[in-house]
C-alpha cells in the first residue's frame, strides 16, 4: 500500500492512464483531479514527472500535461532495438540458469503472480516482472539495464496493443515462455519471445 500522499496520487493517476479512463492525447486536469481526490495539486504534479519518465505522459511548457500518444516511428525504433538486444539477454540468462532451481522458482512465481493479479494495472506491473525475470540471470548488467529501460518505454504501446487477459493469444505466449524456459529449451523460448514482441509491434501498425 502507498505510504504517502505522493505515492497514493502516483498510483491513482497511473491507474487512470493504464485503464484508459484518461486516453492518449487527453489533457490531465491537475486541479480538478486534486479536488476530486482530496489532495493538493503538488503530489499530482510530482506523479506527472514520474509518469513522463515512464513515457506515459507528455509535459509541455505552457500547455500542461497530456497522456502520451503513440508515435508509430518511435514504437518501431524501440521494438527494433528490443528485438536486437532481448534475444541476446535471454540466451545468456537461460544458459546461466541451467540447474538453477531458484530460477525455476522465481519464474514460476512471477507467472502465477501475473495471471492471478486482481486488476489490469496490477497485471501490467506483474507482466513487466515476468519478462524481466526471464532475462534476470544474464550476467551482463549493462545489457539488463538497457532491456529494463526499453521495457518501461514500451509500456504505452503494450497498453494499446496487448490485452492482459491470460486466456488471450498474447497471454498464452506467457505460459509457453514459462514452460520452455523452465524446460531449458533456449531456441524455442527465444523464438516465442521474438514473435511475442513482433506481435505487439504489428498491433500498432
Given the C-alpha coordinates, what overall shape results?
A: elongated
Radius of gyration, taken over Cα atoms and rounded to an integer in Å? 18 Å
Strand order in the largest sheet: 1-2
Structural class: mainly alpha
Model regions low in confidence, pLDDT < 50 over at least 5 residues: none
Beta-strand residue percentage: under 5%
Order of helices and strands: HHHEEHHHHHHH
Instruction: Give the overall average pLDDT.
Output: 87
Q: What summary fits the major beta sheet?
A: 2 strands, antiparallel
Number of helices, counting only DSSP H or I runs of 4 residues or more: 10
Considering DSSP H and I runs of 4 or more, what fraction of the residues is helical?
55-70%
What does this structure look like?
It is a single chain. The chain is mostly helical and 205 residues long. The chain is 70% helix and 4% strand. Strands 1-2 form a two-stranded antiparallel ribbon. Helix 4 packs antiparallel against helix 10 (186-204) and helix 9 (169-182) runs antiparallel to helix 10. The chain is elongated and about 55 Å long. It starts with a helix and ends with a helix. The mean pLDDT is 87.
Amino acid at each position: 500500500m502507498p505510504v504517502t500522499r505522493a505515492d497514493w496520487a502516483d498510483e491513482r493517476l497511473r491507474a487512470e492512464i493504464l485503464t484508459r479512463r484518461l486516453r492518449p492525447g487527453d489533457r490531465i486536469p491537475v486541479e480538478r483531479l486534486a479536488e476530486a481526490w482530496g489532495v493538493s495539486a503538488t503530489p499530482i504534479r510530482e506523479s506527472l514527472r514520474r509518469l513522463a519518465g515512464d513515457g506515459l505522459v507528455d509535459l509541455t511548457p505552457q500547455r500542461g500535461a497530456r497522456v502520451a500518444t503513440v508515435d508509430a516511428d518511435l514504437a518501431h525504433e524501440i521494438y527494433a532495438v528490443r528485438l536486437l538486444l532481448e534475444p541476446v539477454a535471454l540466451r545468456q540468462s537461460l544458459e546461466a540458469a541451467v540447474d538453477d532451481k531458484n530460477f525455476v522458482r522465481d519464474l514460476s512465481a512471477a507467472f502465477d503472480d501475473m495471471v492471478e493479479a486482481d486488476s489490469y494495472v496490477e497485471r501490467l506491473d506483474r507482466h513487466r516482472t515476468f519478462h524481466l525475470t526471464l532475462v534476470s540471470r544474464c550476467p551482463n548488467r549493462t545489457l539488463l539495464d538497457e532491456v529494463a529501460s526499453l521495457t518501461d518505454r514500451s509500456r504505452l504501446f503494450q497498453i494499446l496493443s496487448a490485452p492482459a487477459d491470460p486466456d488471450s493469444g498474447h497471454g498464452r505466449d506467457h505460459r509457453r515462455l514459462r514452460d520452455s524456459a523452465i524446460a531449458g529449451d533456449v531456441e524455442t523460448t527465444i523464438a516465442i519471445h521474438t514473435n511475442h514482441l513482433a506481435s505487439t509491434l504489428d498491433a500498432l501498425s
